[in-house]
Write a structure and sequence with these properties.
Elements: E1 6-18, H1 36-46, H2 61-67, E2 70-84
Antiparallel strand pairs: 1-2
């Protein structure tokens, strides 16, 4: 074997926290009568179906949340390795 391609690789785990969106729960009739914990669980499970606080810009709450500016990010679990062609 005269020549071989060798690559260095890196991988990371990145966590991003975006700026918050303030919800007035009175504007969301589906949340009426729920406890705070029930509201949080409902939003986690249904944000893609809930109306945005800014319907002129976003189709749903999930889209709005994912478009907010990044407040903080953290990169960890850095891994480095060496691979060869065919791996």
């Amino acid at each position: 074997m005269a020549k071989i391609n060798v690559y260095g690789t890196e991988s990371y785990c990145t966590w991003i926290c975006r700026e918050p969106v303030e919800l007035d729960t009175e504007n969301y009739p589906e949340l009426e009568g729920m406890t705070d914990e029930e509201v949080k669980e409902y939003i986690r499970s249904n944000a893609y179906e809930m109306k945005s606080t800014n319907e002129d810009w976003y189709e749903n709450l999930e889209e709005e949340l994912m478009q907010m500016d990044i407040r903080r990010d953290k990169t960890n679990n850095e891994e480095m390795s060496i691979i060869f062609d065919g791996e």
